[in-house]
Amino acid sequence: MNDLSLMRRLATAGQTKILLVVMDGVGGLPKTPGGPTELEAARTPNLDSLAARSICGMGTPVAPGITPGSGPGHLSLFGYDPLHYEIGRGVLEALGIGFDLQPDDLAARGNFCTIDGRTGLITDRRAGRIPTEVGARLCEELRRIELPGVKTFVEVVKEYRFVLVLRGEGLADGLTETDPQQVGKPPLPVEPLRPEASRAAGLLNQWLAEARQRLSDEPQANGCNLRGIAKDPGLPKLSEVCKLRCGAIATYPMDRGVAQLAGMKVLPTGETLESEIDTLRRHWADHDFFFFHVKKTDSRGEDGDFDAKVAVIEHFDAVLPDILALNPDVVVVTGDHSTPAALKVHSWHELPVLLWSRAVRPDGVRQFGERPCMDGGLGHIHHTDLLPLAMANALRLAKFGA
Amino acid sequence: MNDLSLMRRLATAGQTKILLVVMDGVGGLPKTPGGPTELEAARTPNLDSLAARSICGMGTPVAPGITPGSGPGHLSLFGYDPLHYEIGRGVLEALGIGFDLQPDDLAARGNFCTIDGRTGLITDRRAGRIPTEVGARLCEELRRIELPGVKTFVEVVKEYRFVLVLRGEGLADGLTETDPQQVGKPPLPVEPLRPEASRAAGLLNQWLAEARQRLSDEPQANGCNLRGIAKDPGLPKLSEVCKLRCGAIATYPMDRGVAQLAGMKVLPTGETLESEIDTLRRHWADHDFFFFHVKKTDSRGEDGDFDAKVAVIEHFDAVLPDILALNPDVVVVTGDHSTPAALKVHSWHELPVLLWSRAVRPDGVRQFGERPCMDGGLGHIHHTDLLPLAMANALRLAKFGA
Fold first, then answer.
1. What are the per-10-residue average pLDDT scores of chain A (402 residues)?
2. In chain A, which residue's Cα lies nearest the Cα of B374?
3. Of A12, A1, A399, A7, which Cα lies nearest the Cα of A237?
4. Of A177, A336, B227, B239, which residue has the fewest beta carbons closer than 10 angstroms?
5. Three-state DSSP class for B101?
6. Nearest 5°: phi and psi at A359?
7. Which class for B305: exposed (0-12), middle (13-18), buried (19 or more C-beta within 10 A)?
8. Which of A359, A363, A389 is the closest to B64 by Cβ?
9. For chain B, which ranges sit under pLDDT 70?
């Protein structure tokens, strides 16, 4: 059910509480052939006990074979078809550094690059991967560029990457990128894909011309490209569509940002799981949908550290009883994508899913792991179906038709 | 395969016979944690034996998490995507009381309500849930209203609910409801959503004005609202699309009505399962698709009576051999939605499905129940796929492409 209009039509307000636990990148792979995945290797008596009382299955965030970024991975769990609701790269990059993006801001991902001074052709699209300190100094230089009628923000991300944000009235998106995607070609101008975007295109080209001048003496980063120039997509708000008062508890800016785009209230919290649970407890009465994010499963997966990822999962399992003690009416536990330590990156693999409520029809799954969940009663589902299922189990969806 | 055009293109006439058994609301939930569902608790040697020779699975009538009404639940089993083919509430209400709705009739569900005589604002949208006898008397009064050029019918449903039907030429649907959906507001006028509907809107508003006068002395039901004003949606007829001669055997008006909308011939039958089987036997030669409806599984589920629902299932199991003795070529057994006794209402849970023919590829399922069917060879399917599968198993679908 990717159709938010159906949710909008059937959702009813209520007092029941839904808890969505997202263990970022939790899906894994065996370290050795025939061995357990990270989740299967972890000692998780509490998750296993919950799984035994739940209906389980395997979930696909976007489509079979598609590896999701954090944006689409979370959108899908929040009920938005990520192929229909795309968040521009510039917006995600801005959210990822915790930039306080406004609804009318135009955000672009910037890449410093090396340009041959004689021919004007790009010789290195990443400017020799300059250190972050150099990038930071150059961003400071670029902040001096002034444009008529708009405010500009330039924020360093990492190494050769930065974020450019234009703030002002009437900045439409629908703009081409400047990166020709290969060396030996010159940067392209920004071009409007629709008439309303002409002014923004003009301003960005003016900014790029001045950036080129200000960077001209740099040995490596003497040019830059803008990519994924976009605005807040203006998603239908989950709070309105589902008549849920949504609170988000997450430690990383990107995940907090996506939750905010979906219409959740981002709750202040600390860096640890314990701090997140404390936040959950303090705000328990104020919301009826909680997005609870566990970041480090993904981080340790990206490190390629199987055992460290196992330890993060075991840590979460140990605190799960504190969460369940709050008596949620519906609990969903899954991930936004897989990040097998064996691959060190996000992957396309399905995610184990667990759905608990007093009204679920339990299956035979007794352990929360990839292989046990393959036999689960939910079968293979799309992640966008989880929110409607959670709503149904919270008895918050009216009957369709008489 | 929700696309009826593909069915229309590939269906071939033939002599094989398909039997679709719909145990209304058969899907259930355990009475106690870890216990069996109603279907699993029932002693069903004949269904189990059939399941062992069948391919089984779990079916979704509308979409994950969506609780279907009887209309959408049956449409899906008849091959129509219920999100695409919607039947208006007025039409379903008319069918539900066995009203002989004509293709051009405009039908509305009516609700008596209480209106504050001084302010004109609704104070009770259900008129204090007046007894059915009072509703019947008021319907008689409302039958006296005459409209120019159309015939009107006013039929009591139950308590504060009634059906209004306008019969005449050129009555288009596409009309707003009058119920403001909350107390403290006045009834709204009927407004046309398209120009063709203007005449119908005018007639309905004239009817409402006179109804208001005629009800003005009533202490509780001194007003009324009209909802779901609609016409027969004009579904493509199953008989034409699938080249099937379709007969429907059902004891309840609503289910008979939906079958009729789908182009089936509704066969006269009695109230009992034995009488339905007798009807099936007598008409066996005349049709090659039979919709055989078992109502009481739903009724006992809505009563919240687990054991009585088990008894209805066991009763059906006991007469199943009489049905199979007719030698159908394809048998499908499932429900139109779940009605767990534990919830006492329709629910969103998947339905166990069994498909038998001489050409099925049997799986390992040995018992017809929710948990066994979770492991079935059909996997998790959409109910709209059942009719094409039945057609294929009846060897009545031509090859697609060369």
1. 83 96 98 96 98 98 96 96 92 91 95 96 95 96 97 95 96 96 95 96 97 96 96 94 97 91 95 97 98 97 97 98 98 98 97 98 96 97 97 97 84
2. A377
3. A7
4. B239
5. coil
6. -110, 10
7. middle
8. A389
9. 1-2
Instruction: Assess A366–B contact: CB distance below 8 Å, yes or no.
Output: no
Judged by CB atoms closer than 8 Å, whether chains meet at A400 and B343 is answered as: no
Give the one of A364, A375, A397 whose C-beta lies nearest to B65's C-beta.
Answer: A397
Q: Is B298 on the interface with A (CB under 8 A)?
A: no
Residue with tokens 């609301």: B25
In the structure encoding, which two tokens stand for residue B387, read together? 């009719």
Q: How far is CA B24 from CA B90, B236, B334, in A?
A: 22, 24, 8
SS3 A292: strand
Cβ pair B71:A397 closer than 8 A: no
Closest CA to A284 of A332, A255, A322: A322
Q: Which residues contact B154 (CB under 8 A, 6 or more apart)?
A: B110, B139, B140, B142, B143, B162, B163, B164, B165
pTM: 0.91
Give yes or no for A381 touching B (CB within 8 A): yes
Residue A363: exposure state from Cβ atoms within 10 A (0-12, 13-18, ≥19): buried
Residue A80, both tokens: 């938005």
Tell me phi and psi for residue A317, to 5 degrees: -60, -35
Instruction: Verify whether the Cβ–Cβ distance B87 to A401 is below 8 Å.
Output: yes
Cβ within 8 Å, pair B83-A359: no
**Terminal Cα-to-Cα distance of chain A (whole angstroms):** 19
- The pLDDT, as a whole number, for residue A96 is 86
Residue contact A402–B89, C-beta within 8 A: yes
A162, A220, A335 from A112: Cα distances, Å: 8, 9, 33
